[in-house]
Amino acid sequence: MFIIFHSGALYPQPEQNTMLLMKTCKSLLPAHQIRFFSFAKASYQATLPSACFGFPVYWCLDLRRDWRRRLLYPALSKLFDRRGYSDYLSAKLATDELQIAIKRNPPDAVVSTIEPFYAADAVSRTKGMKRILYLMDPPAELSNGHSTKYRIRRLKKILATQDAILTTPFIRDALISHGYVNSSKKLFIVGFPLIEQQAVVPNAVSDRQQIHLLFCGWLYADIRSPRYFLDILSRLDERFVVTFMGRECENLTERFEIHTKARLITLPQQPYDAAQQAMADADIMINIGNSVPVHMPSKTLEYINTGKPFVNFYKMEDCPTLYYTKRYPLCLNLSEQDPDIDAATERFTAFCLESKGKTVDRTDIEREYADCTPRYIAQKILDALGE
Length: 387
Hints:
By secondary structure, this protein is an alpha/beta fold. The chain has helices at residues 16-26, 62-72, 74-78, 85-104, 117-125, 140-143, 149-161, 169-177, 227-233, 252-255, 272-281, 299-306, 321-325, 341-355, 362-368, 374-384; strands at residues 2-6, 33-40, 51-52, 55-61, 109-112, 130-135, 164-167, 187-189, 211-216, 240-245, 263-267, 284-288, 310-314, 331-335. Strands 3-4-2-1-5-6-7-8 form an eight-stranded mixed beta sheet, sandwiched between helices. It has a six-stranded parallel beta sheet with strand order 11-10-9-12-13-14, sandwiched between helices. β9, α9 and β10 (240-245) form a beta-alpha-beta unit.
């Protein structure tokens, strides 16, 4: 079977969900042919590779889309910046480019794995092949109350045109409860393809005198604030070394006033291998949940995959992280709604002292989180395609 995957950005730095998708696609080889369709900036044209992670890529350049917008849709171009019309035109432009790729080499199926509205919309407009939507993250309509009536109607139509939808149990429940899907028959429940054997080997860190804490990820200013953890950090002493690594982390001390006796290290986003090695070297990981419904940091499962201890800070009682973390024996869940910071700090410190150097058996992880392996999700895609 020949499958085109409509992914997020691949170049110059693959998006997190795209990295996860690559793990799944490798499990489809060698029995199935895979090709990617991805957007790219025209300024990268000279350096765009013909393949990423071993998979050929059809590159859709932003400059080419802009030419099409001006030449083929001049009327809509005048409305391009208006709310609603921007999504509609973007979907048409993406569909045009996707149809060109399909005509050149017709696939048996198109799988869309990217959340931006126009991408899923473009796949919903393709015909003559199976259409699969893999929702790793929830549509924005489930996460905020600012969507237009047009976007809500269009989302319902997008979901209705899909032959199958793969998503997490909490996104599935939200889609049904909000009336975005009328039947659960075409919904396939999967996790994130993150449970796999690590390529990096942890260093022997248990004999270190200090306890090394690591937050690795993206600190979204609006939905993933570290304020509660920073309040605990201000109460930690010289026994702790705390590293923040990822987007929006390098300017942490500029955004927040931080006073602590612990050693604090802030680093910008690192290459994938460097981030993996940092998790292998840490004693305790820090997970910070989101403040919007049904949206979970994928790092939650990356931490679980290491087998190491971590602390999960969650902002709401129905936080999706709890679906996974409550089953993990080396996780401390701390609610950010707890006003007693001193008591939370005591629990945090005790957990770190007791858990340093401990690990969860690999067999137990793979058994408990079997639905989050690349092989399992690859099989679910094939099930959705009737293979």
